Amino acid sequence: NCCVAVHGVFAVCVVQTIILNTSHTFSLRSNKPVGIGSTMVVSKVKHILQTKTGQKVKVGHGGTLDHMASGVLVVGVGQGTKSLTKFLNCRKRYFAVGKLGEATNTYDWDKNSHVTDVAPWSHVTHSNILKVMQNFRGEILQRPPVYSAIRSEGERFYKIARDKNNVKLPEPRQVKVYSLDLCKVYPDGKEILLPFFGMTCEVSRGTYIRSLVYDIGLATDSVAHTVALTRQRQGHFTLRDCLPGSTLFSDSSDICFQQIAEKLQ
């Protein structure tokens, strides 16, 4: 075992393969098992570091990713956990894909989702979407999804939503959208065809991309939900800076420890 102290922050690329509720499949990579969340990454990093150092190691993350989301997850180790607050408060950049014509209870599509509303979408064009996006730039009031990690009387909204049929909606909150642009192609270059639409955005803390997609759908006189979401940047960390999530869950502990040590800042 390595008898050294490990401290600092690094980023892991959490990658999901998203199977949409159609025959369409979207993924950034396919070399990692589906369903690995933020907590699982933290637990795995802690296990690797404690096994290799023989010491107790404090590990945390700088802002969770939605269960169906992929991308940059900032991880703090040892003294590095003290700097995680700045990553909670910093700007974040996302790539998202929405689907017009269907709304869901979670505003996305996962094991807890079901369709709550359907509406025509054939009247919507890319020009329509571009026009309504103008209303969602800058400081806006946004209502978070019911399935969210914010608290109501000390309990997480998503836990309340799972246990009750009628849940009081979270209050709207002021957030800032620094940029919001329409994307017509996936990262792999394939065209995004309606009723799907892509977008990139840079946002402040507390902004829910699922709510942004949902509200854009309503503004086009249709409905929409999020089918793919990738955090491309958090603070100074980008996807290029990340340790692939597949490394943590498929490579040996020796290789993982070495690569984590190299990534720590």
Q: If you had to describe this structure to a student in words, what would you say it looks like?
A:
The protein is of the alpha+beta class and 265 residues long. Helices cover 25% and strands 31% of the residues. The chain has helices at residues 38-53, 84-89, 126-133, 157-163, 209-219, 245-250, 253-263; strands at residues 8-14, 17-19, 25-27, 59-61, 70-77, 92-100, 102-104, 115-118, 138-142, 151-152, 155-156, 173-183, 196-203, 224-234, 237-238, 243-244. Strands 1, 4, 5, 6, 9, 12, 13, 14, 15 and 16 form a ten-stranded mixed β-sheet that branches. It has a two-stranded antiparallel sheet with strand order 2-3. Helix 1 packs across helix 7. The two termini are 22 Å apart. The model is unreliable at 17-34 (pLDDT under 50).
Overview in brief:
By secondary structure, this protein is α+β, with helices and mostly antiparallel strands. It has helices spanning 38-53, 84-89, 126-133, 157-163, 209-219, 245-250, 253-263, and strands at residues 8-14, 17-19, 25-27, 59-61, 70-77, 92-100, 102-104, 115-118, 138-142, 151-152, 155-156, 173-183, 196-203, 224-234, 237-238, 243-244.
Strand-helix topology:
Elements: E1 8-14, E2 17-19, E3 25-27, H1 38-53, E4 59-61, E5 70-77, H2 84-89, E6 92-100, E7 102-104, E8 115-118, H3 126-133, E9 138-142, E10 151-152, E11 155-156, H4 157-163, E12 173-183, E13 196-203, H5 209-219, E14 224-234, E15 237-238, E16 243-244, H6 245-250, H7 253-263
Parallel strand pairs: 1-16, 5-14
Antiparallel strand pairs: 1-5, 2-3, 4-5, 6-13, 6-14, 7-8, 9-12, 10-11, 12-13, 14-15
